[in-house]
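Margin note: ligand = nicotinamide-adenine-dinucleotide.
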Amino acid sequence: MPAEPSTATLLIDGEWRPGPTAFEVVDPATLEVVAHAADAGPGEALAALEAACAAFPAWRATPSEDRATALRAAAAAIRAAAEPLAELMTSENGKPLHEARGEVMGSARMLDWAAEEGRRADGRVTPGNQAGPGLVLRTPVGPALAITPWNFPASMLVRKVGLALAAGCPVIVKPAEQTPMIGTELVRIINEAAALPAGVLQSITTTRPAEVVGALLDDPRLRKVSFTGSTEVGLGLIRSTGARLRRTSLEMGGHSPAIVFGDADLATAAAAVSAAKFANAGQSCIAINRLYVQRGALEEFLPLLLERVAALRLGHGADEGTTLGPLIDFAGLDKVERHVTDAVKRGATVAAGGRRWTGEGARPGLTGAFYEPTVLTGVDDSMLISSEETFGPVLPIYAFDDDEDALRRANASEYGLAAYVFGSGLSRIWRAVESLDFGIVAVNDPAPVRPELPFGGMKNSGQEREGGSEGIDAYLETKSVSVRL
Ligand code: NAD
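Resulting structure:
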């Protein structure tokens, strides 16, 4: 089932097909066209759903051990293809190659985890009453749709696919239109390595997500939607579900606070904050969006942080030494500029960066949406950046005097995805962990994503979890069986 090098990026019922038309995929660093993808419409999506429904009975009946073996083979194939996959990701997403490699390897670990969890998706037997025993069974929810974003175009897709397949659900993936090729290539590799039957894992690329997803949502045979993307689109999906209930997982926007207590190892905290802010040029749902530093430590902490920021190297993600790539597009850049301009107008100080980068000293042709890594001080809660997700390389710093005040301000957000705490006093850290209203709390850790830990948010950041032993629940129904003997 080889993917054509052309625009045949639709995998429907075991066949790679082109769409009615095609669309261009650009390198965000150079704005050059790097590929063309099939532009599917509702007809292709419904054909994929038809095939998924046909594949469901056999796939759910496949022993979980066989499904696990297939997923482990897919994980191994992803590891074996890590380098070309990373290069492909960088070419359409812009992130530095070392980050892309890390994401690919992380995706393989997620598949391994899903394979293991599928074998543990067991139920229970309740103590019998006068009539007989009761059983709780867990059954696959049915044909699923995975809608994924451009910022982590491999890991977000593989995590959903792994859990769905492990649970016994066929899955249709719809990658973001900015990054269709890495998603398509992963679908090809997983299909081949796992020798999946037709219809079990399919892919639909499109520039008309509302129309294509809308057609699938209108069809009651689609039993599950797992969405990762913006809060605006995610809430729209819930609304458009209308009167029909359907299992829906949402991984949406964030506005992560980080708190640096005065007793933190400040050099380590500065390195971690820089990593958690500037990875993927700040375009991460768990990127730090607000940094609260204890006032007494700020004087020592700020130069340590600025040293880290000064060491970042803007450039094409594929170039040796690049640690900061472009933003995905100029709409993203406009938002970053709007946040910085608003903050400065209201009294913030630019301690580093604060402007577009036009490629000085790097290879020619970097015409994409680059922005210098930026640090703002003197930021207050009234500024736009304090409540809106920036999704770019800008770090606003706030001073705080007492822990309760920092925790209250950290929680004052419509979002609740991830929070970071840096410090050493155990009781102080524990109080913070307990009181932060976030699905993920990272303690002295810049990268709180592990297959073993459930990933997901509270409030407007989402519902359900991916990963951990909770992750597979999103693809399982609970069935109670009452037995009379
Ligand atoms: P987006 O919401 O614009 O797009 C995400 C996906 O939804 C894409 O596949 C897109 O084609 C599709 N989509 C867009 N409009 C749609 C519609 N009307 N109906 C159905 N599908 C539609 O988000 P994005 O810009 O690609 O990603 C950035 C956002 O994703 C940020 O807000 C970020 O915080 C969030 N994100 C969250 C997580 C998480 O796990 N919580 C992870 C990564 C990114």
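The chain has two domains: 10-252+461-482, 256-450.
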